[in-house]
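User: For a benchmark we're assembling, each entry needs the component sequences followed by a predicted structure for the full assembly. Here are entry 17's components. Please fill in the structure.
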Amino acid sequence: MSAGVDSTDEAQVDGAVDPDGKVPSRRRWRTVALVLAPLVLFALLLATGLGRDARELPSELIGQPAPTFSLPRLDAGGTIDLGELQGQVVVVNFWASWWVPCREEHDALAAAWGRYRERGVVVLGVSFEDTREAALRFRDELKGDWPLADDPGSRTAIAYGVFGVPETFVIAPDATIAAKTTGAVTYEWLTDEIEGALRAGNVA
Amino acid sequence: MSGRTRSIVVLAAAFAVVALAALIASGGSDGNQTLDERVHEIGAGLRCPVCLNLSVADSPSKLAGEMRTEIQTQLRAGRTSEQIRAFFIDRYGAWILLSPPPHGWNLVPWAVPIVGMLAGVTLWVAFVRRRAPRTAGEVTESEHLRIEHELADLEEPG
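Assistant: Structure for entry 17:
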């Protein structure tokens, strides 16, 4: 047993001497660290960066004048013109029948519309990348009676910097954009933002 | 000039030539472009909001197609490339640009490759320097004589 211990000791001594005496092990470790450090940093950067949703950015349009539009109505004849709604709080909801979160948020929109329509708040659904037929089938299925509009060529969606659906904007009575949310909108968010916009409108 | 210095100079010259060629190739926008070419040029600098990692010019998504139409409409209306880019930045933020404008924190992604390359070259040169005496040691006449003397002394001590 003691012979075995001796031989390993010798081997370690041999290793530390280093045959050409050029690369002491401490320096080798420093080289390894120098190579690994950028790799580790890069991996951390990717780990934090890739976990974020690039769409969840604050809108550039908050506080800016709401882009105007005049869109053909889907659920009825005629057009709906944002200019004619100035002085009112308008909730513009970009949605599509083919996207599940738009189903999920339907009840929240219906509840907000039911609660605030008496106070002059308008909820407007703007159809995004959808057919007229599919949009109307969605409405038949899930009910609701707030106005729906079509957006030919997605020009209004582009003007609002829409990434995808659902996205919801609250436009204050002074026709500036008060708030925006990405993803299925909640009733709490809608009531908070609508109340805020109504208060701002009363002060002005 | 030693062989090593010469190879470094040749390498630097090669870098310079490639960089110059890239600069000339990228700066070739003249006034004789067609409308489609101008749409493509603007679209190539914009990020498609749907697929995130393709440009508006390359993305097959419907929204990107509609953005190309929007660019075309605005170009026809006489707006400049800069005005159209500003139109998209106002709505989507600088996010929409595939290359971040080089100021403020955006300078970081621009500087990292240059800093990295300089650091790499420095490390490489330092590494080569340290190795140099062993690999390229040329023994001069006087050193030869000295070695022979020393060896002779070793063999006949005293």
